[in-house]
Amino acid sequence: MTVSAGSTADAALALLADRPLVVLTGAGLSTDSGIPDYRSPGSPARMPMTYGEFVSGEPARRRYWARSHLGWSRMRRADPNAGHRALAALDPGLLITQNVDGLHERAGSRSLVALHGRIADVVCLDCRTTSTRTALQERLAAANPGWLDRHATVEVRPDGDVDLEETAGFVVPGCETCDGVLKPDVVFFGENVPAERVARCYAAVDGLAETGGVLLVAGSSLTVMSGFRFVRRAAKAGIPVVIVNRGTTRGDELATYRLDVGCSEFLSALAS
């Protein structure tokens, strides 16, 4: 049964109070930190780069890193908001996030699966060496002096990308170990979430059936299957599902309670 916010907010809070929780979060949770999302009402249409595009050749990778260099310089300055802090205080059995911004970690959440990875990490596609985004950011700045200043006003996108078309001349350094191709250690569209992450999430959701727990979705439209599958799994097992999101979601018909309210305010109320 799908219900709306208002008179049902208290009922949803009562359902969630003092019960085991698994929480699934999406980009809508980070909007109060100044990071835009893809699908909230009024958001402009955006098409992130796919994995196939990224590995298609040097021009696509140059375009990606030229934009991401700008976006990361701002995204890394974002701070956790009240919603992140509330979830850290609630300390659910498992926090599954579709976000790559690392704000849950900075807020102090402990039992966490970053389903799509973290934009703060970089991996070499050739030798699989991992490194920090901070170190790569310094190398990109040294190889492209003045790039940040010349493009200081471009719009930032949810995944650390920006709205920039002209990227000719941007220099992308290779892996310091093997000079191979560097990629942010995140799951692009067209890639699969690592199986061990999915298995851990499924196990946590399945456990809710035994403990009388609830699956709480906060700030996700559930458009992509990587998150929606956990809602389907819970609903099929008879586990209550509460969805808190601005705008409709793919899981609305499966929800016990569906609240069109802000994540920060609802989660703060739940944690108080």
Describe this structure in words.
With 272 residues, the protein is of the alpha/beta class. It folds into two domains: 1-35 and 80-116 and 192-272, TPP-binding domain (Rossmann fold, 3-Layer(aba) Sandwich); 43-77 and 119-186, no CATH class. It is 36% helix and 15% strand. It is built from ten helices and nine strands. It has helices at residues 9-16, 51-54, 58-75, 82-90, 103-107, 133-143, 147-150, 195-211, 225-236, 263-271, and strands at 21-25, 94-97, 112-114, 117-124, 130-132, 182-186, 214-218, 241-244, 257-259. It has a six-stranded parallel β-sheet with strand order 3-2-1-7-8-9, with helices on both faces. Strand 4 (117-124) and strand 5 (130-132) form a beta hairpin. The model is unreliable at 1-6 (pLDDT under 50).
What are the salient characteristics of this protein?
single chain; 272 residues; alpha/beta; Rossmann fold; 2 domains; six-stranded parallel beta sheet; three-stranded antiparallel beta sheet; 10 helices; 36% helix; 15% strand; elongated
Helix content: 25-40%
CATH topology of the largest domain: Rossmann fold
Return residue spans where pLDDT drops below 50 for at least 5 consecutive residues. Answer: 1-6
How much is the radius of gyration in Å? 19 Å
Q: Briefly, what CATH class of the largest domain?
A: Alpha Beta
Relevant CATH superfamily of the largest domain: TPP-binding domain
Number of domains: 2
Report mean pLDDT, rounded to a whole number. Answer: 89
Strand line-up of the largest beta sheet: 3-2-1-7-8-9
Ends apart, CA distance between termini: 27 Å
Q: Summarize the main sheet.
A: 6 strands, parallel
Number of helices: 10
Strand content: 5-15%
**What is the overall shape?**
elongated
Count of individual beta strands: 9
What is the CATH-assigned architecture of the largest domain? Answer: 3-Layer(aba) Sandwich
Which structural class fits the helix and strand makeup? alpha/beta
